[in-house]
């Protein structure tokens, strides 16, 4: 059964008017530790931007046509706000008070940390897509997160994975939920849906869109070549984390402080030709979005000793050696005691599965605790968990 977007089948959601998180653009919360691990939501309304019909002016009617105020209102429910934005011909990249949002014409990626209520915003998001873009069905949806450091501080439905899955099951059809890794150690949760079996629709515009969508190979999705890499790091080096604190509260925060961190840490060298938008919070904490053609990368750092955490995520296409190179660059910058790597990609595309597995075999100075390969509906997942040697 297709996931139809209509008012009657959406759980109710809060319409909170709060526009800032508990930390109010500040990663330090007094003596209280901050929850760095993010909740990551990705919703595809079409397999490709080419599947979106055009209006009478030959303009694509996609998510990028939605006005900023509409996104602001949706993010109020999540309990975060937009602090900066960059764009190119393919994607809008929003830097948030609690991580990032990427808006393509046909899909949206929303990543939030702390005690944000990400899932509560899905009903509003689906309504926005339906009313503004005539996206009346969801093609695929993905939700994932690392195990929380402080799960007791989360609000429903984020208190536990079972409640999150139950909430998602109210919204989407053809969903499956997984726990990847050791439940008595660092692990990773994933919920994903399969594409709808029926690509027809009642209204003519949807028929045109979904007829175009049928030209995409939905069985193996090779034409999509969708790839996402995450590196999630904990127990970071206190010495290295000093670089993610403001040196001067008056002029070393915001975008100027972010640019200073980029230079001093070497983060700007991960993808030197990318368009970079970075931000340093008061008194500490760092976020950055980067755009490279039709791809993005994003980095978020919680440097406090009691809850140190850093994440890196990208959908920039993989090439041989890229994963190992990126991992070693990140390790040199953050010196984590532990880290998780996930590589999530469509099957049959230009990245060899065996190469991915081998690339997560050995990392200098670290012991591999887990290496797991999953075969999902149209996607492969490679998961690796590493701990510092002689820790």
UniProtKB/TrEMBL annotation:
Cofactor mode of binding and number, as noted: Binds 1 pyruvoyl group covalently per subunit.
Annotated active site: 99 (schiff-base intermediate with substrate), 113 (proton donor), 287 (proton acceptor), 300 (proton acceptor)
Protein name as catalogued: S-adenosylmethionine decarboxylase proenzyme
Site feature Cleavage (non-hydrolytic), where: 98-99
Record GO biological process: spermidine biosynthetic process; spermine biosynthetic process
Cofactors that this protein relies on: pyruvate
Organism of derivation: Gigaspora rosea
Pfam families attached to this UniProt entry: SAM_decarbox (PF01536)
Residues annotated as binding substrate: 34, 98, 281, 304
Keywords associated with the record: Autocatalytic cleavage, Decarboxylase, Lyase, Polyamine biosynthesis, Pyruvate, S-adenosyl-L-methionine, Schiff base, Spermidine biosynthesis, Zymogen
Matching InterPro entries: AdoMetDC-like (IPR048283), S-AdoMet_decarboxylase_euk (IPR001985), S-AdoMet_deCO2ase_core (IPR016067), S-AdoMet_deCO2ase_CS (IPR018166)
Family of the protein in this entry: Belongs to the eukaryotic AdoMetDC family.
Region feature (Disordered): 1-34
SUPFAM superfamilies: S-adenosylmethionine decarboxylase (SSF56276)
Residue(s) carrying Pyruvic acid (Ser): 99
Reactions this protein catalyses: S-adenosyl-L-methionine + H(+) = S-adenosyl 3-(methylsulfanyl)propylamine + CO2
